[in-house]
Amino acid sequence: MTVLLVNPPSLSGPPGARESFISGQKRRLTPQQYYSLPIEHLGLASIAAHARSRGIEVDVVNGMVEGHSSVAETWRAIQDVARRRGRPRLIGFTNIDTFDELSWLVERCRATWDDARIALGHNFATLNHQRILRGWDAIDYVMMGEGEVSFTLLAEAVLNDRPVDEVPGVARRADDGSVTATPQTVVNLDELPWPARDELPTVLREGFAGAVYTTRGCLYRCTFCGTGAVGDLLGRDRYRFRSVEAVVDEIEYLHRDFGLDFVAISDDLFLAKHPGMQERAGRFADEVLRRGLEISFMFDARVDAIGDLKLLAHLRRAGLRRIFVGLETGSYEQLVAYRKRHVTADQDPAARINAVNELGVEVIPGTIMFHPTVRPAELRQTLRLLKATGYRTPYKLFDRITAYAGTPLYHEYGAKGLLTNDWPIGEWEFASPHAERVFAEVKAFVTGQDEADFAAAERFFLERVAEWEAAEPDRGLAHQHLPVASTTAAAPTTAGQP
Ligand code: B12
Ligand code: SF4
Known about the structure:
Elements: E1 2-7, H1 21-28, H2 31-34, H3 42-53, E2 58-62, H4 71-85, E3 88-94, H5 99-112, E4 117-121, H6 123-127, H7 129-135, E5 141-143, H8 148-159, E6 170-173, E7 179-181, H9 200-205, E8 210-212, E9 215-216, H10 226-234, E10 240-241, H11 244-258, E11 262-265, H12 275-290, E12 296-301, H13 309-318, E13 320-328, H14 332-337, H15 349-358, E14 362-367, H16 376-389, E15 403-404, H17 408-415, E16 419-421, E17 425-428, H18 433-447, H19 454-471
Parallel strand pairs: 1-2, 1-3, 3-4, 4-5, 8-11, 11-12, 12-13, 13-14
Antiparallel strand pairs: 5-6, 6-7, 9-10, 15-17, 16-17
Helix pairs in contact: 3-8, 4-5, 11-12, 12-13, 15-16, 18-19
Bound molecules: cobalamin (B12) and iron/sulfur cluster (SF4).
């Protein structure tokens, strides 16, 4: 009898030439780029730790970290656990954008162990629990929001043949066929055990990063973001944080027991412009320095949170090497459309990036090059921001926005008739055939080469954009774009910018 948690493999590449997540990342990125990428599943690891602390045996099969290159391989790994541990009674799946892989695995589990209970958690499941429970009979429960307490209580109920109707945060089909959900409990993050680190040795061996979380949720509501949408669904008070001391204790433990010398802080929003969050980041640096911890780290921040260079210099002294910044787009109007107002109309994010780079801290850009109504001038401006960071991978030249089911963006595209397929991921088409052509040609150029070179891809990209401009000039749209900073070149950094 066992309890299992499963992350599907998240394959990439075209049908017929599928590759594992790890191989895909290694093909697209240099080791200098992916060393800071955290690929452990901290969510499943945290649920496993909590359940184990209550005496429940939990196994985790993470097809992504185990480097599976087919769902069949993940299925074999699940069967191996069942052979060793016994017939599973409860299987919990997680998913960001792998619903098709997950459905395939769920069908196998259901056909093999017809009395096992099958649950699904994470943002996508939370936001789409109604549709999932109505459409997929093999899935018994959708776990809403954070899973540590709810999954542990569910496991206790299932293993002891008790009813689950009192378990918090569980959506399920009621006897009359309707979907019903129990409210979630809000956990105190400092009371949770640290995540189980079963996957960390593999992650480090493959050259990726170990991670800690220090906050949950987000104060903002960008239209494309699952975190913001879940915050809205479950209540606006979902932004919470751990104490700085507890976080540094955990990092110290990872450094001591796993030899970790770099840690990715995997919060959606480690640093916000709110004075309390700026002060907390300063205390974090104080604590790392006070303990003399020889560790470097990165975190995610918004553009509006990286204005205080004194604070960033202090964090740099404590070990800050990279900041992931969701720049999104060079168009101010588009930032407003995404509800991502991290600059005012007269501010240039490139100026902030340059200032951060000059401190010796790399900026890893989150950019969205293409969306349904993108215009040539926006493509140029987004490229300018991308280049200001100094981060070079040609794959960034054909990023396109994803309309995750359940997000405001998905509903907006649906209402505007832009979706060509609405499940499991919202697929959309371009308003202009020129945009479609630029996107397709740049993608074919980059993916058609074994070792794609950024400079060549950039030239190709700009030539295609120029052709589009010649065929369909932008008239009167210049005001749309963010102003150009006086310095736009990326400063060299000490960490060996790729
Ligand atoms: C690290 C990370 C990654 C890593 C590892 C992913 C992973 N498997 O966790 C990598 C780099 C691989 C990655 C890739 C992607 N990511 Co990512 N990632 C993150 C990040 C920054 C941290 C994750 C984390 O550690 N969270 C902390 C842990 C404790 O929380 P958690 O994982 O959410 O789990 C809790 C609950 O969700 C829930 N839960 C989760 N699963 C389950 C399952 C069960 C059974 C139960 C009961 C509960 C449950 O309980 C957990 C404990 O409370 C998050 C942002 C964030 N802060 O969450 C984005 C985030 C999850 N990623 C996101 C995206 C979009 C992606 C990509 C699609 C990006 C891309 N275009 O390629 C890919 C998809 C990869 C894949 N197929 O899995 C989005 C998802 C948006 C959405 N609609 O849900 C997020 C939220 C960022 C954002 N704000 O937009 N990502
Ligand atoms: S600031 Fe980041 S995490 Fe928060 S809603 Fe926007 S994209 Fe999502």
